[in-house]
Records
---
Amino acid sequence: MEQILTVKNLKKSYGNMFAVNGVSFSIDRGEIFALIGPNGAGKSTILKMVATLLSPTDGKIDVGGFDVVKNSNSVREIISYLPEDSGAYKNLTGIEYLKIMAGLYNDDNKKQKEYIEKGKAISGLNSRLSDKVGTYSKGMIRKLLLARTVMIAPKLAILDEPTSGLDVINAMEIRRTIKDLTKQGMTVLLSSHNMLEIEFLSDRVAIIDNGKIHDSGTPSELKKKYGKVNLEEVFVEAVKPSFAQNKEIK
Amino acid sequence: MKKFLILLKKEIKELLTLQTILPLVITAGLFMFIGNIVSKEAEKTNKPQDVVLINQDNSTLSSFVVENLTKANVNVSLSTENDINKAISDARGSNKSAILIIPSGFEQAILSGNQKKIDVYTVINNFSISGSKNYTNLLAAFAVTNETLSNSLIKQKIVDINPNVIKNPLAQNEFIVVGDKKANASPNEIMGFVSQQTMFIPIILFFVIVFASQMIATAVANEKENKTLETLLTTPVSRKAIVAAKMMGAGVVALLASVIYIFGFKSYIGGITGGQKATEQTSQIISSLGLSLNTNSYILLGLSLFAGILVALAISLILGAFAEDVKGVAGLTTPLMIIVAIPYFLTMFTDINSLSPAMRYLVYAIPFSHIFMAAPNLFLHNYAPVIWGIVYQLIVFGLFVWIAAWIFSTDKIITMKLNFSKMRKFNKNR
């Protein structure tokens, strides 16, 4: 199987504090790989480094055969990133936003039209796409942004907390969309602290805390390994030694 | 290039909103409105002053005074009322601005070489400038009448002599020298006219720079706060194109805003100065001295302003990158505003060249000083300092663009922040 993303011994420090400390994993084409962990575990930092936003302090990230530090421009051609809690330009209409983003990914007008049509369909916003983004609800903005992220058919979609802050209905719709898109060959790296969501979406999971991966595998493998019924309990069990150690230090 | 144009369009669309334009249009409209009102008030005060005059002397000389006051734009209504309180009450009722009483014995006293005062009761209805203008106009009319009366008396007492020689034996013939040109005119009149014509230039320049700076810093902070910048930075667009589009977008909107503002402000200034136009003689003198801006001067002034705006935009882009959210922008851009204000006020109230060398070089080091110094230099045809000023501004601009591009091409754009509210909290808690 072709590997789309390879992360080796990745580190990111701010002063003496390591936000990410020696993380390694890889993702195959068409796979949904999830990083799960509490707030501040280092999930978003890893995603930002893969998305070329932050430079690693140490280690190596390879996306589709390109190094994120040395070939960041080539990496940006094949990835698409959805930041956590992000907004869109309030004074643009939904359709204007999709057009602008399509134009930034491809100079070819025909290709741009393809992206926009796909974006329109994925967003499900129909006639509301003609309204200004400033008039959208949080769920509508998230759908628009998800549509923008995946409409260009990236080799790797990086989704940071894709359903954070959304109601149950909107969250379910977005999860279903992500799942459907991977069936068409898209690879997804996502982060979440919602274990239920991860269990539903992911092919493989990495449990992360204090900047380190504590364990990884398919949800069923992990549940079996730790003898637990859900990922939430698996997570607690997996990070227990680190939690106890931190408590001692405090 | 295509991606740059897409980004530019996006920036302009984001900046050119009803919320941005409406306050400007309202401000410009208010300026026009105030200018219009002031202009109408000024017209009113230039009308002949309505006064009541009680001539208790009824002499040839008192009639001479009445006649000359009338010639000096005073509308005199004669009254025979002897009760001053009644006269005041009547005057107030008929909207007269003053009551003048020429006392009996006026002519006799003057002709015998003694002063005899005319009583002047000024009716004050308000304390505005237009209210005091009535009194000023009356004083001017008195001065003219006094001059005529004085000349007449001198002629009566000393035959065959020009009264001006007695009053002002020392008279000056005034010339103005500008560069290698000279003209026979009063410096006060010419300097007053030129400064009146150019007084709005620094105000507009200050406004444009402040507006552009605030706009781009807010735009960057807003993108950081909404995380739209994170999305933009992961697209396959060069970071330089992102920086350039942001600066150009803000520059275009700032220029448009300044046009609206200039339009309103010119109407305002036109109103408060009464749309004063140069007399034909003044125009000729100004032209012969070359004290007007030609096409080249306007191009240089425009280039200087443009270079200054570019510097302000580049600095503000960096400041915006430091902001964690839009609320933090005001605090971050305040030092820049102060730096712009220093040359603004200095050029309004003093000549930079008269400052001490240390202070002068400090002012020269501020890139915005060269914009404010450009207009006076261009009026005096000192092109070299203006050109060097533009070159210096462009060098400073290049330096700040390089810094901005570096910040945007590293993860500093995501990680660096200055949060004043957190800093305040930290200091409080310490």
---
Amino acid sequence: MQFLDMGNYGFYVWAAYGVTALVIAIEVAGVRLRWRAVARATGEEADTP
Amino acid sequence: MNLYRFSAPAAFYPIAGAWAPWFALGAAILTVLGLYIGFVVAPTDFQQGQAYRIIFIHVPSAWMSMFIWLVMTFWSILALALNTRLSAMMAQALAPTGAWMTFIALWTGAFWGRPTWGTYWAWDARMTSELILLFLYFGLIALRNAIDDPRRADRACAVFTIVGAVNIPIIYFSVQWWNTLHQGASVSLTAAPSMAATMVAGMLVMALAAWLYTIAVVLVRVRTIILERERGAAWIDASLIARRV
């Protein structure tokens, strides 16, 4: 709990880190889904990555 | 070895596919290590308390936001000078990640600024020029989407990128040229860092992680772009038959 509290700066620290994690999740998922869709449309197995 | 060979999308495509997972793995390992150093090893800042820990993502993302535009400028110059397709595709693949990095830099900066400076946002030279960088990324992506012919879009985007590069030194030197809110660099090549060694270490590890992450994402994206744009080319059909792509 003390860790999450971040010396009363928890809101700011976790808002910064949380949104960054969200952005990375969105970008990685987007890139992979797009790859898969295009690879499938090209007739290739979506084996990697 | 003839390095020019890899400037052909057909030659680069399988290499990008083989390398991407390794860069992603490296990025993941370095992120865990960087966060460990940043949250466990590095001490609490005597002025900023725990709020300073935001810099472990703020500084790397801000560096990447500027550096990606410079890398795009490099590829754009190559694309214009040598008329190589892959150079333009690399520039195209970098733009979305550059925009995301810029957004993260602005967002984390706001949440660092509120507890430290007392405000989420100010029309300070560094922050304003970084916001302009975000708009330049949006403009570049919109420009590409507005032109149907990919080769014409390549040339237009290359010129836009090269002209837009003028904003990068403005961002970088803004803290020296104008005396507004944002502080100067805490880490530079010419002077000793003005913070604890473990804090610098955490920041540099996270910066390296951001590098590897960018490379991994861009490699997958450039593969997608190659497939989209080279569809129907003989090498794709041939390699599909061989199932070796």
